[in-house]
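Run: sequence + adenosine monophosphate -> complex structure.
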Amino acid sequence: MPDFPKDGILFKDITTLLADGELFRLSIAGLIETAGENKVDKVIGIDARGFIFGAAVADRIGAGFVPMRKKGKLPWQTIGMAYALEYGEAEIELHKDSLSAGENILLVDDLLATGGTAGAAIKLVRELGANLIAASFLIELEGLNGRDVIGEGVRIESLLKY
Ligand code: AMP
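>> structure
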């Protein structure tokens, strides 16, 4: 969708994919593959479209689901991280007791753009001492080099590359 939510942004709308049962099922299967043979204790989904994919992934592999939310949405004690977006600025938060040290984590979101969101999410996971196995995205905008922002040492997979 061109020029949404701001001029110059080519927004990747996933609602048509979600409405197609077979495509949605295949997407979840693909996102799970990123974890490989690793046991996943918890899946983190990023606010808000990451909740849709992350929760389905967690259910299918029998893992817990943890929402990484936009600032001010979580009711308990949180840790947070501010970051720059492709179109603006934001801060994400995680409940302090949502992950335990040593737990295996799979991060899931719909789209990797500049990598600001995922980079901040990964820092929060590490701050709580959990073990990030991989980050799994439905879509990657390769020209924005989000992988480079996230940095080395993180397994990143995406199903659709633009
Ligand atoms: P970034 O932090 O730049 O990697 O942006 C990733 C987050 O912003 C994801 O949660 C996406 O849902 C959203 N996002 C960024 N750019 C787009 C885009 N062009 N189309 C759809 N969603 C986007």
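>> summary
Residues 9-12, 46, 49, 85-86, 109-118, 146 surround adenosine monophosphate (CB under 6 Å). The radius of gyration is 15 Å.
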